[in-house]
Amino acid sequence: MVMGSALSPESTSERGTFMAEITANYVTMPLLRLTVCECGVSMLYDHIKIGKVYQVYPQPLRGGFRCGQCGKHYPDIELVWVKQHGREYPGLMPWGLFHEPGEGSKS
Ligand SMILES: [Zn+2]
Question: Which residues are close to ligand 1, an ion, with C-beta < 5 A?
Fold first, then answer.
């Protein structure tokens, strides 16, 4: 596995372990919506369509999210690591893009 040169040396090992765990536990999930913001503007690129399948690490983090379109901040939103095609590293995306509200809390 080739690590990015932009990473600082002291964080590379820890980050690499973390990324390996994420990569080993991806599940394939389709995108259910394009925004989690009440402004309704898509937070994703225009060419991305609902139903596009991502590799998602389905362990939500309590992270917070600021809408890139209207600037509204959602402090309690859950984020998940998502691997996008063609990207070496996953990025955080709102969990709400991938599941229905209320789902996931019951087993
Ligand atoms: Zn917004």
Answer: 37, 39, 67, 69-70, 72
Report how far residue 24's alpha carbon sits from residue 52's, in angstroms, rounded to the nearest whole number: 21
Q: Residue 48 C-alpha to ligand 1 middle, in angstroms?
A: 17
What's the number of CA atoms in the CB half-sphere (13 Å) around residue 13? 2
Digit-by-digit pLDDT tens for the chain (107 residues) are: 444 444 444 567 787 888 888 889 999 999 999 988 999 988 777 778 899 999 999 999 988 989 888 999 999 999 999 987 777 888 899 999 998 766 555 44
From ligand 1's centre to the CA of 3, what distance in Å? 34
